[in-house]
Amino acid sequence: MKKIILSAFALVASATLFAQANSDVTTQVGNLNLATVNQVGILNDNVLDQYGDENTAAVGQNGALNSNYTLQWGNKNDAIISQVGLMNSNQSYSIGNRNSVNVDQFGWFNESLIIQQGNRNSAEVDQVGLANSSEQYQTGNRNSASTNQWGTANYNMQDQWGNRNKAVTLQVGLSNSAEQWQYGDDNNARSKQTGTNNMSQQQQMGNDNVARVVQDGSNNYAGQGQYGNANFARSKQVGDGNYSLQLQYGDNNEARVRQTGDDNMAFQTQLGFGNYAKDIQTGNDNLSVVNQTGGFHYHLGTQIGNSNAMFINQSN
């Protein structure tokens, strides 16, 4: 009877130990690949696949129920994954040569997805907090994507098709959303959000375009669409409930919006080349609508106070 009881205790102890064990499945097919995996905690899961030559991957998991899948298909790809906390998740796919992935997750329920197709692309994700989500897609060569999320329930998406594009997002706060699309070569997009429930959308189709968004407050929206080459757009919002939309069709256009206050609205549309528009709104409930068609138009609009409205149309 004593032996039966001891055997039962041993069986329960073994089952408990098995339930708390970490899991790693690493596969290497090729030559001179290097994989390092460190798991501390319970029920962490890692799957690492390396197909090719001279790929390098380092995975660190500390906590409980963290999960990682990393695929390297090609040569000389590099991946560094760090997960500290509870139920963080990462998936990264590098298909090509000399691509780089760097993911750092600290907190609970953060999610990251990276898909790279091409050569020498770089993707970086830093998440600190709770339930942040990041998606990065790179198709082409020498593209760079960087995401920094500090807070809770922030979302970021970066989609790059082409070569040498650069996208950067910084989010500090709660429930901010940023989306960046780049189709072409040498485009540059940056978004910085501080506060709650801000939204930024930037789309670049062409080459050498530059887009900047800065949001500090709550419930602000900034949209930028650049369809052509060498356009520049910047939107800065300080306050709550501001709305900015900038659309550029053509080449070498420049559009700027600065909103300080609440519930201001600015619309800028440029169709042509070499146009310049800048709107400054200080106060509340101001409205500015600017349309430029043709070439080399100039507009500077200033609104100080509340509930002002301007409508500007320029063409040649």
TrEMBL record:
Keyword Signal: yes
Biased composition (Polar residues): 190-206
Pfam family, one: Curlin_rpt
Keywords: Signal
Region (Disordered): 181-206
A cellular component term, taken from the record's GO annotations: pilus
A Gene Ontology BP annotation from the UniProt entry: cell adhesion
Protein name (database record): Curlin associated repeat-containing protein
